[in-house]
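Data card: per-record layout.
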Amino acid sequence: TEVYDDNNKLISEFYIERRVLLPLNNIPSIMKLATLAVEDDQFYKHKGFNFKRIAGALWSNIKAGGVVEGGSTITQQITKTMFLTPERTIFRKIREAILATRIEKNFSKDEILEIYLNQIYYGHSAYGVEAAALVYFGRHINELTLPEIAMIAGLPRAPKLYSPYFSPDRAKNRRNHILRRMESLGYITHEEAENASNSDFKLKDRQDRKNLAPYFAEYIRQYVEDKYGSSGLYKGGLKVYTTLKIEFQEAAESAVKEGLREIDKRLGYRGPLGNVKPLGQYIDWRKVDEIELKNFPEGREKNGNRALGVVTEVIPEKVLVFTKDIRGYIYVQDMEWAHKHDPSVDALSFGKMKNAKDILKVGDVVDIKILEEKDKKGNLKFALEQEPVVQSALLCIEPATGFIRAMVGGYDFDKSKFNRAIQAQRQPGSSFKPIVYSASFEKGFTPASIFIDSPVIFEEKDEENWKPANFEEKFYGPTNLRTALTHSRNVITVKLLQSMGIKHGLEYARRLGIKSYLTPDLSLALGTSGVTLHELTSAYGVFTNRGIKTEPMAIKSITDKDGNLLEE
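The structure for this 568-residue chain is written out next.
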């Protein structure tokens, strides 16, 4: 299943095997030749199996005392991946040959090659050459260069072993071997082979292959699976066209991340991630890797300007930090937020750290951000960072249509898949007051209605008496509702709910889309009942939409693999 944003840009995929089927005439000739060169250069001459290749592989295996080499043709490889178990025995080779012969009798050579180029596994969940091109290079197969195609052609033999992400040098050697084979068979010239062998390949960032909006994508996944089943979701070839605007989503994610980092820093520095004593300038990076794995078992946010470093020198105004690749300084002004937090003094203490020795020592493993500017001597500058432990959510709904334009359910989806925008119930506090005030208008109250802001006590049978108070701990006497709402006056809001009736307040909240359980008492006026961000955002949309309620909508349409409309 493919998920698209509001501008029909692919933002997510759900699959067991990632595959994009292409007819053979849409696959570049050079891709076919590269595959034939490395897998089966006699493909168009044999009848499904090649006695010469099998005999050579058998002799190599006898000499080695075990199976070390395969002699399978392309047709045999299809039988192996589609019909047989992965065991490596002589009997299976015989079955391969029999099935390969039957396939050759029923399909043309071009049809067999088309099946192979769409069926074989190329690593990293990519099946077929088109999926491989998108996974490794972010482009279609017909847009790749010769060295890129040669690299892909070399993957089926051992996708993990030759993965350019895991083993770039091994992948390059494998690519160059294929280029030499292509040259020896006359598929490319010596000059083309040389130029391609000397070139570097620029891989697609693995992070780019993740969902662009992971919480939103998971929200969509759950809906599709509930309605169309697991088979429909993962094997149905569905296309889901959503309301998400990617530019809104990027702004939302940036706002949540930056906001949480800022709040987290106000709470002070929690200390280094660990300590590795360096011997001069020698650092045991294996221990640093262990510390990283311990602190980030699910992996850490991948960002080009973030890294782990080891402190090797500390003076009051700066510290020297080494990463695996570079070295630089953290100046005191770039870590002054890292004061020692004392919650007994202030929940959000804003003191500034002035001496680096108060916070860091030699050997400390720290999270850093690489700054763009350099110091006066041309040295790289770093800033001290830490991963937030607090969480947040953001939901953007277009009031006129109900379209969900952005959804962020937390700081990092990989670490916490709990969607706080949809699933978390939190006390809305004063943000619930507009619902109370708008409900009162149906009972004849107006913005000019006067209430007395004065002390009041509500007697409780089984609990202590309740005496609501304003935030300022003052009372303001006669006050109209416009002023009371503007200044978020607690006492008047409670009196207003009492005057119009709790039952009416509850019913009105339901009409605005609040579905969570609401306590039927006067504390409801102050937002003591938990609601979801989804509910509250939808309710607020009614205000800006002049009283017209629109249901939040994430999906515009869904089509099947043949383009037939399933829902709209």
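Known properties of this structure: Residues 214-235 form the longest helix (22 residues). The chain has three domains: 15-207, 268-385, 394-544.

See the next section for split statistics.
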